[in-house]
Amino acid sequence: MAYDIRPFHGIGPITFGMDRSEVRKTLPAPFEEYRQNEFANNTSDAFDNIGVTVHYDQDNKCECISIWSDEEPVTFQERAIFKENPSQIVEWIKVLDGSAKLGGENTLTSTLYCMSIGFDGDPSDPDASISDITLFTKRYYETNLKDYV
Questions:
Q1: pTM summary value
Q2: Are 27 and 15 in contact (CB under 8 A)?
Q3: Which has the closest alpha carbon to 123: 145, 101, 95?
Q4: DSSP conformation letters of the chain
């Protein structure tokens, strides 16, 4: 299954606003339902076999999608994100979104595209790699991420 990143819409076959039961039918893998932390409004589904986590709002609608496996192609504007050089990804995203910020946790966040890209280590390090890609709704950003970016 290919995962094309579509800001404000979703990733691959998973779309924002999709009901939890629809997501579970769409993704061909077992899942584990868990609560991200004590402040979370709802539980999330981790599809560990395919490297995908989906977070839901209080109405069980998809509002955030994370992918941490590079076994399937993950593309944004026709670029295979996991296959790219991390420092080049940072430069490219900053060109697309001049307000994109690289945080202390080695995460690049673009509020323009409602997307974050995590790195294993400093992205300027030649041994660094991309660890995960997360796409979220503006509402999810405002309520869960804004204070951490």
A1: 0.90
A2: no
A3: 101
A4: --EEEETTTEETTEETT-BHHHHHHHS-S--EEE-SSTT-SS-EEEEGGGTEEEEE-TTSBEEEEEE---SS-EEETTEEGGGS-HHHHHHHHHHH-TT-EE-TTSEEEETTTTEEEEEES-TTSTT-EEEEEEEE-HHHIIIIIGGG-
Q: Among candidates 127, 114, 119, which has minimal Cα distance to 65? A: 114
Residue 103 in tokens: 């945080």
Q: Could you tell me if residue 86 is left (phi over 0), alpha (psi between -120 and 50 degrees) or otherwise beta? A: alpha
Sheet containing 115-120: order of strands: 32-34, 44-47, 52-56, 62-67, 129-136, 115-120, 107-110, 101-102
Annotate 19-57 with three-state secondary structure.
EHHHHHHHCCCCCEEECCCCCCCCCEEEEHHHCEEEEEC
Q: What does the pLDDT look like over 62-86, one tens digit per residue?
A: 999 999 987 778 999 999 999 999 9
Residue ranges and CATH numbers for the domains of the chain are 3-148 (2.60.460)
φ, ψ for residue 124, nearest 5 deg: -80, -10
